[in-house]
């Protein structure tokens, strides 16, 4: 009997189907939606070979099937009430289903004014859209997905923003979510070209200046180390290990004086230009009104990274403009911007979401017609935050002329030794 029981148990272990689950994230059960209906779902299984594919049935008709353990797709439906089933098939022969009911209305939708579908546009791309819904409580929020990653979110039924998408064919989806649980989307495909000129791989450029800054007044110190080892620093270029491009630059700080900083600066245009752009005829810099600062930043230890600063500076006709932007991680935990006139940092309320490992940071700033400084957007790891704050410029000696870019590391309360890396650093101007 024991042997028979053992054989029976073994038979059950071999032939029993693997257990699987399907989770439908969108649309929620009983929700209202416009057309197309946005389906988002994931599947899991104990089958060692994994999930083979997933599909969407609407009123018992297969509308979509795709490979893998997740789906994110739109299904066009006429107004009415629908029973939808999301199903997975695993490689062990298992099948699992989850169902949801959705009401499709005729008065919901997303209208995209800009950019036009299949148009050619310049970077950054201006998105203008509005949304309507049959939900009596209205539209809650709108967002933009680019290549299946959400890069922008705003409350309400209107959006108007500029996003750096990068050159090439980019596929975007503008989506609205209403207060009844419904959602509608409109896809937009654009061919993006650069409207400006880009200076690339600046982290690997020669000509970087390096200074220590000692509290409390943060005066410049040019000797490494500064003040009896109060702060020390180093910079190693053309590093291949751990690099994204094979040409990374490593930055290191440490010392004994808490909250000491180190500033690295490169004069890319005008006086002392490291990029072959001295602009002696003054035909370039006076006509620049926009900058995009891009960089991949590797953080070794966020626990000792007080803050990291990324700046673009512009000087002409006795006017100084410093677009200073810092991730103030261990202080207020948000992104701060620089007030030129009062020489102080101003909190934006935008959370600093840098993390250990590689991060991608994009800053968009603008010089207004009166030389005011407009901080437009901060994009971190694919998520764009609108700043939309203006600061006045400050006065500098009339002989100053040029554009510089900065990278700065600030020490913590122990001036702990810290390492960060920069790669793919570029500035686009127009």
Structural notes for this entry:
The structure is a single chain. The chain folds into three domains: 14-104, Immunoglobulins (Immunoglobulin-like, Sandwich), CATH 2.60.40; 122-195, Immunoglobulin-like (Sandwich); 198-429, Jelly Rolls (Sandwich). Helices cover 3% and strands 60% of the residues. It is built from one helix and 33 strands. The radius of gyration is 27 Å and the shape is elongated. The relative contact order is 0.12.
Secondary structure class reads mainly beta
**Count of structural domains:** 3
Q: What does the average pLDDT come to?
A: 89
Radius of gyration equals 27 Å
Globally, the shape reads elongated
CATH class of the largest domain: Mainly Beta
- Strand proportion, as a percent range, falls in over 45%
Unreliable residue runs: 1-18
Helix content: under 10%
Summarize this entry quickly.
With 430 residues, the protein is mainly beta.
Task: Fill in the keyword field for this structure.
single chain; 430 residues; mainly beta; Immunoglobulin-like; Jelly Rolls; 3 domains; 9-stranded antiparallel β-sheet; 8-stranded antiparallel β-sheet; 1 helix; 3% helix
List the helices and strands and how they pair.
Layout: H1 2-15, E1 20-26, E2 31-33, E3 37-45, E4 51-58, E5 61-67, E6 70-75, E7 80-90, E8 95-104, E9 109-114, E10 119-123, E11 125-132, E12 139-146, E13 149-155, E14 158-163, E15 168-178, E16 183-194, E17 197-199, E18 209-214, E19 219-221, E20 232-239, E21 248-254, E22 261-270, E23 290-299, E24 307-316, E25 319-328, E26 334-339, E27 344-351, E28 357-367, E29 373-380, E30 383-391, E31 394-395, E32 402-410, E33 418-429
Parallel strand pairs: 2-8, 10-16
Antiparallel strand pairs: 1-3, 3-6, 4-5, 4-7, 7-8, 9-11, 11-14, 12-13, 12-15, 15-16, 17-33, 18-19, 18-22, 20-21, 21-33, 22-32, 23-28, 23-33, 24-25, 24-32, 25-26, 25-31, 26-27, 28-29, 29-30
């Amino acid at each position: 009997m024991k042997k028979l029981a053992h054989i029976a148990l073994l038979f059950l272990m071999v032939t029993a189907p693997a257990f699987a689950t399907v989770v439908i994230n969108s649309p929620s059960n009983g929700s209202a939606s416009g057309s197309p209906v946005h389906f988002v779902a994931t599947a899991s299984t104990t089958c060692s070979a994994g999930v083979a594919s997933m599909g969407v049935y609407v009123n018992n008709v297969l509308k979509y099937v795709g490979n893998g353990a997740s789906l994110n797709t739109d299904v066009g439906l006429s107004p009415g009430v629908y029973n939808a089933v999301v199903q997975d098939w695993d490689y062990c022969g298992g099948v699992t289903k989850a169902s949801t009911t959705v009401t499709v209305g005729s008065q919901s939708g997303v209208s995209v004014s800009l950019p036009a579908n299949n148009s050619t546009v310049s970077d950054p791309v201006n998105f203008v859209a509005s949304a309507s819904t049959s939900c009596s409580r209205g539209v809650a929020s709108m967002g933009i997905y680019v290549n299946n990653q959400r890069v922008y979110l705003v409350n309400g039924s209107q959006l108007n923003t500029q996003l750096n998408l990068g050159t090439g064919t980019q596929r975007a989806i503008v989506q609205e979510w209403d207060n009844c649980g419904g959602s509608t989307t409109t896809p937009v495909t654009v061919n993006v070209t650069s409207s400006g000129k880009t200076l690339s791989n600046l982290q690997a450029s020669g000509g970087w200046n390096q200074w220590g800054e000692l509290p409390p007044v943060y005066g410049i110190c040019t000797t490494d180390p500064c003040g009896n080892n109060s702060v020390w620093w180093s910079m190693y270029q053309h590093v291949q290990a751990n690099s994204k491009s094979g040409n990374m630059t490593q930055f290191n700080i440490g010392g004994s004086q808490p909250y000491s900083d180190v500033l690295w600066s490169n004069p890319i245009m005008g006086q002392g230009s490291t990029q072959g752009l001295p602009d002696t005829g003054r035909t370039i810099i006076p006509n620049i009104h926009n900058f995009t600062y891009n960089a991949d930043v590797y953080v070794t230890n966020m626990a000792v990274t007080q803050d990291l600063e990324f700046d673009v500076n512009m000087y002409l006709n006795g006017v100084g403009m410093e677009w200073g932007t810092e991730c103030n991680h261990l202080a207020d935990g948000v992104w701060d911007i620089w007030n030129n006139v009062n020489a102080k940092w101003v909190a934006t309320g935008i959370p600093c979401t840098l993390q250990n490992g590689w991060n991608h940071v994009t800053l968009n700033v603008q010089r207004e017609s009166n030389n005011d400084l407009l901080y437009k957007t901060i994009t971190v790891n694919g998520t764009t935050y609108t700043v939309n704050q203006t600061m006045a410029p400050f006065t500098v000696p009339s002989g100053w002329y040029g554009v510089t870019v900065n990278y700065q590391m600030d020490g913590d309360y122990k001036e702990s030794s810290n390492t960060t890396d920069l790669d793919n650093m570029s500035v686009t101007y127009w």
